[in-house]
Amino acid sequence: MSEVHAVRRGLLRDRCAAAGSAAALVSRPANVRYLAGGAPPGAVLLLGPGEDVLLCPRAPTGEPTHGRPDEALRIDLLPVPDGDPVVAAAGLAASAGADSLAVEEHDLTVARHRAMGKAAPRLRLADLGFTVEQQRIVKDEAEIGCLRIAAEITDQALGELLESILVGRTERHLALELERRLVDHGADGPAFATSVATGPNSGQGRHRPSDRRVEEGDFLSVRLGASYHGYRCEIGRTFVIGTAPAEWQIELYDLVFAAQRAGREALAPGAAYRDVDRAARHPLESAGHGEGLQPRTGHGVGLEIEEDPQLAPTAMGKLDACVPVTVEPGVHLPGRGGVRIDDTLVVRPEADGGPELLTMTTKELLAL
């Protein structure tokens, strides 16, 4: 992977040079990992002038959650562990002859930005903006391979839970068990905090697992994902517990299923972000559920669980091939229950079979 990371750094260096910056400082952890292979806690990456350097408060341990830095990359340890690597990087860039340094202002506090200016007063600080985040949107096949494994792990964990006895267990216990199963099957850890919502709690759009126990007739709404080599996927499913679904549950589920299918089918290279959102949102609005819908239908995934692109009504831009996204419409009826169906897919052209579904757990309305 050393060559891959070197190519990524080279692309960023070229973009910075075109914008008039001789060097760039990357501090957002996911961006550091993308360019350096690993992001030890507190590490920042200095690109040029001359040699690229990963500045670390402490020696990298190679833990899976942080990744393993590119062996070809120079690593500098700060002489004082509690020193600030961004300040050290500014001084290093200035001493190497740089007159300007592009920084991720959206990741830096005002205090750190000022400290950099004091450490290297002759160094002009420019805003790198979201250049690295934009570079990360289209994934290579190695990245997609990691996402595919993360999805397989997630499907395994969820499938095993569905085979167990659920009635009488608490939401909190089920969430903890799912996260344990993710690790047991090879995940670095959960991609985000697992959500389990039962009965009326499934009628809340954002619910944290509570001590409510699963009861017969409940909707059980689960949302989870694995992180594998830093790459994060997401799945959401809704089931009925212990009995045949009620008529209103079937109708609500079928409606959300149709919306989710429409969103998935709209995924194609060149499709506008807002058009994908509209495809999934329209059936729900037509059925009278427009007011309580989430502000977006989906989003990109990768080294972070929520990345660009955003599949939302006002989002600007069009999809490219090899962009992994979620499609996750839902309808939540406060005090009664709700349905959410969530998949991770990779945008592919029609000639390659259309969107690649990574999360394979059945979307039937099962009675568990």
From TrEMBL:
Domain Peptidase M24: 146-348
GO terms of molecular function: aminopeptidase activity
Lineage per the UniProt record: Bacteria, Bacillati, Actinomycetota, Actinomycetes, Kitasatosporales
Keywords for the protein's UniProt record, in alphabetical order: Aminopeptidase, Hydrolase, Protease
Biased segments, Polar residues type: 195-204
Protein's recorded name: Aminopeptidase P family protein
Organism from which the protein derives: Streptomyces anulatus
Keyword set includes Hydrolase: yes
InterPro entries to which the protein is assigned, alphabetical: Creatin/AminoP/Spt16_N (IPR029149), Creatinase/aminopeptidase-like (IPR036005), Creatinase_N (IPR000587), Pept_M24 (IPR000994), Peptidase_M24B (IPR050659)
PANTHER family tied to this protein: AMINOPEPTIDASE, CYTOPLASMIC PEPTIDASE PEPQ-RELATED
Hydrolase keyword on record: yes
Signal peptide positions on this chain: none
Tree of life domain: Bacteria
Domain named Creatinase N-terminal: residues: 8-138
